[in-house]
Design goal:
301 residues; 9-stranded mixed β-sheet; 4-stranded mixed β-sheet; 15 strands; 24% strand
């Protein structure tokens, strides 16, 4: 039995920050990172995506090692980015490979407690999400990052708002967006007005909107309440995957108690704080440490 099934192509990225540089390409991806974190929190996870022959054997071996059930179809090549961060945390993304869109929905989606849709680059179109919605009543949690990306004139990734987003949002129970994605979707800068930004994101049609704002924490809006979530203070060596693992921590707590959104948000922040202290898929996330850090956030005035 799978607790959480995630849709989104895995990638193998090269990551460069002011303090870290990977040796070659490392496993990553929105849905992949969420599955990695959830599995370490005790949730049975499965990943649906496409991988090229260049990384297929390595990917299958990686998922076995990390305890994630693979629903993998072959692509022409494996997706990936070269991510370069500056001292402010801003990044550029150069594409190293692009896998084709996901077309299959495994039967396991019908019995999962939750579904994550976390695309990297346009691989989860509206038609796929509609099929997922038709096969389950479980909450769909959307990280829209890959829906909002396209190739710019210079060949690098740029952000835009696709027309189909208006139809996708109401199919999702939770939408979690970072500050850049929130501004693209709503036109509101969450660093200036996080409450309004989260409310506008909620008004796209989801039940719960989450806006993450890095070291400034996050804001959750369910249409009735606006909840400010503090960030867990830590030494961030690599922000890649912070939002993915926040989503994982939030979902883990939400499945336990869907009424306590403040705890769920704090669990997300605690989980992400461990991830960004490291680089790559081996961050030592444990339920004990996540709960300890969550308790610290819950006790803040």
């Amino acid at each position: 039995m799978v607790d959480v099934i995630a849709f989104g192509n895995p990638v193998y990225d090269e990551i460069i920050t002011p303090v870290v540089r990977t040796e070659g390409r490392v496993l990553s991806g929105c849905s992949t990172n969420a599955c990695l974190a959830l599995s370490r929190l005790g949730r049975a996870t499965a990943l649906v995506g496409r991988v090229g022959p260049d990384y297929l054997d390595r990917f299958q071996s990686d998922l076995v090692r990390y305890g994630i059930a693979p629903f993998v179809k072959l692509a022409s090549q494996t997706g990936g980015f070269k991510l370069v961060y500056d001292h402010r945390g801003d990044r550029t993304l150069d594409v190293l490979g692009v896998a084709e869109p996901i077309t299959a929905v495994p039967a396991a989606v019908a019995t999962a407690q939750a579904v994550i849709v976390g695309p990297i680059l346009q691989e989860t179109p509206l038609a796929l999400i509609q099929v997922i919605r038709s096969q389950t009543d479980a909450p769909i949690v959307l990280d829209p990052q890959g829906l909002l990306r396209r190739f710019g004139a210079d060949g690098r990734i740029e952000h835009f708002l696709p027309d189909e987003f208006a139809a996708i949002a109401p199919l999702c129970h939770v939408i979690k967006a970072n500050e850049v994605e929130t501004k693209v979707i709503t036109g509101i800068d969450p660093r200036i007005d996080p409450v309004l930004a989260a409310r506008r994101l909620h008004e796209t049609g989801c039940a719960i909107a989450i806006v993450t704002i890095a070291e400034a924490g996050s804001q959750i809006d369910d249409g009735e309440r606006s909840i400010a979530i503090p960030a867990y203070a830590t030494d961030a060596r690599d922000p890649t995957g912070a939002g993915d693992t926040y989503m994982a921590g939030f979902l883990h707590a939400y499945l336990t108690d869907p009424c306590d959104l403040f705890r769920a948000g704090c669990t997300g922040a605690a989980t992400a704080s461990i991830w960004i202290e490291h680089t790559g898929p081996d961050a030592p996330i444990t339920l004990v440490e996540v709960e300890r850090r969550t308790s610290v956030l819950l006790s803040q005035p």
